[in-house]
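Appendix C: a fully annotated inverse folding record. The material below is reproduced so that readers can follow the format used throughout the book. The structure is listed first as tokens, followed by the designed sequence.
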């Protein structure tokens, strides 16, 4: 009985090869095309019917008639009509990274040319994509004188960063002192009876001087929100949610991050609580609040929030004012 052997023990490598390469003549039409490639030009040939063939052929594929002797410069840009993605290039491929084989109709041509497109990823490939050739540094009269085609530039990334220093006025400084101590402070207008957070010294509605300092809760209700898909160093993950949160005891919402819940589950009316950094890490900065997270309480009815925000159980009562009436603040926004 014959012994069983593994298949790889009986496998031999065979090679079909012309040592030194197979030499052939090009003929006048293909020769003209390759000569123009060496000079970094792309040409086609016109048929008797007026079509421009690229690559050029000696005979019209539709009629079998000889082409004319008229050569037409085309491109160099063109349009992708169809493509196939190569996720794992082989040693003989033109690129050592994933690329696309594409049918490219060069501008001025009536037929397509097959060549590689270095698009970076498959999502960048689509019919209608505009491309241009990337030439080898030393062309030699071969189709590989074009290393590949590249998509035309349709977008750019421009670094945008502004660095500036903010010096808070007395009102914002007082608010940040409270944040350092784990307390959120607002100011109550004596005429409108509205509580503004962050703390401020004048009412934006009636202009009255605000003397009453009010401690509000670190819980509140999301009034509106946005899902962000661009990275932010302050956010725990992407996508993340930024929301306007109406704190219990306040009449104006403040903006903050929301985390601890999938972005698609955030909703208007959701009850949230501030997540603070440990006391030993706190400074006079809003970074003391990492973000707000759901409390698990039932959602609030937004239509009722504006009537009596300070009546929610657990909302602290006002505390004495921090300074004399009439103080001015250089900045009353969030830090």
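Designed amino acids, in order:
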């Amino acid at each position: 009985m014959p012994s069983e052997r593994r298949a790889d023990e009986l496998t031999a490598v065979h090679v079909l090869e012309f040592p030194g390469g197979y030499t052939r003549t090009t003929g006048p039409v293909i020769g003209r095309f390759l000569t123009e490639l060496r000079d970094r030009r792309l040409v086609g040939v016109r048929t008797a019917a007026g079509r421009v063939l690229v690559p050029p052929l000696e005979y019209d594929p539709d009629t079998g008639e000889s082409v004319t002797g008229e050569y037409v410069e085309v491109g160099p840009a063109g349009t992708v009509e169809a493509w196939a993605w190569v996720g794992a290039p082989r040693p003989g491929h033109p690129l050592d990274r994933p690329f696309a084989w594409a049918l490219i109709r060069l501008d001025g041509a009536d037929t397509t040319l097959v060549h590689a497109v270095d698009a970076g990823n498959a999502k960048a490939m689509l019919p209608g994509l505009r491309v241009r050739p990337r030439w080898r540094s030393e062309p030699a009269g071969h189709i590989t004188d074009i290393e590949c085609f590249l998509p035309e530039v349709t977008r750019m990334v421009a670094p945008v960063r502004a660095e500036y220093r903010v010096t808070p006025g007395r009102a914002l400084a007082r608010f940040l002192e409270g944040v350092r101590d784990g307390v959120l402070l607002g100011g109550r207008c004596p005429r409108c009876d509205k509580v503004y957070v962050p703390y401020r010294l004048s009412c934006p509605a009636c202009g009255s001087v605000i003397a009453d300092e009010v401690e509000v809760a670190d819980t509140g209700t999301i009034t509106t929100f946005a899902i962000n898909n661009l990275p932010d160093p302050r956010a725990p993950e992407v996508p993340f949610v930024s929301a306007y949160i109406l704190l219990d005891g306040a009449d104006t919402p403040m903006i903050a991050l929301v985390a601890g819940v999938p972005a698609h589950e955030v909703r208007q009316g959701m009850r949230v609580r501030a997540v603070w950094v440990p006391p030993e890490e706190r400074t006079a900065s809003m970074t003391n609040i990492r973000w707000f997270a759901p409390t698990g309480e039932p959602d609030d009815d937004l239509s009722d929030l504006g009537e009596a925000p300070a009546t929610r159980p657990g909302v602290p009562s006002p505390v004495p004012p921090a300074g004399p009436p009439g103080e001015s603040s250089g900045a009353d926004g969030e830090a």
